[in-house]
Amino acid sequence: MNAPESGRILALFDFDGTITTREMLPDFVRFAVPKWRLRIGGALLTPLVLAYRAGMVSGTTIRTAISWVGFRGMPLADYEAKGVAFARDALPGVLRPDVMARIASHKANGDTVVVVSGAYDVYLKHWCAAHGLDLIASTLEVRDGRLTGRYLGAQNVLGEKARRVRERYGLAAYREVHAHGDTAEDEHLLALAQHRFYRGAELTTL
Fold this sequence. Notes:
This protein is an alpha/beta fold. It has a single domain (9-203), classed as Rossmann fold. It is built from 8 helices and 8 strands, in the order βαααααβαβββαβαββ. The strands form 2 sheets. The chain has a 6-stranded mixed beta sheet with strand order 3-2-1-6-7-8, sandwiched between helices. β4 (140-143) and β5 (146-151) form a beta hairpin. α2 (35-53) packs antiparallel against α3 (59-71) and α4 (76-89) crosses α6.
């Protein structure tokens, strides 16, 4: 568990749609997965994607399927290289200036700022390191130097976000906890905080 500096704020930020202007998983998949596999995978996953858009399939299920079809068998070295390039080339153009300013303000005050995301850590770890932020994210499993297509442990979504934050940080040691999200999947994360921000506006109730 990380030891906080007494009296500081713990600021928790969802990434996709909160720090960025849109969900970035589709962008990363298109960026990282070979075109031949995208064509095959697109055909295989179309019924599932349509069911997801109709509210019949959960986000957890669709992400599990995308990871399996897109990344199973990919060499770890290739995956890591794509993560570095995506963080460098794709993410700067989709950041919300107002949220980045809020993050900068927290950092200037010496607060602990954490990105808590269901997205892949392969690119978020590089982006967070460049901005001096802590990270809790989802990881894909690797065996013998290749991705299995499965998640390593649970996806960092819904209640898992709150569980991992509590596991890593002693919330009671912070003067305040702030949390930022943009969808119903962030409800558990927002519930950790005294100050809750949904799509930029502070909530009085959850």
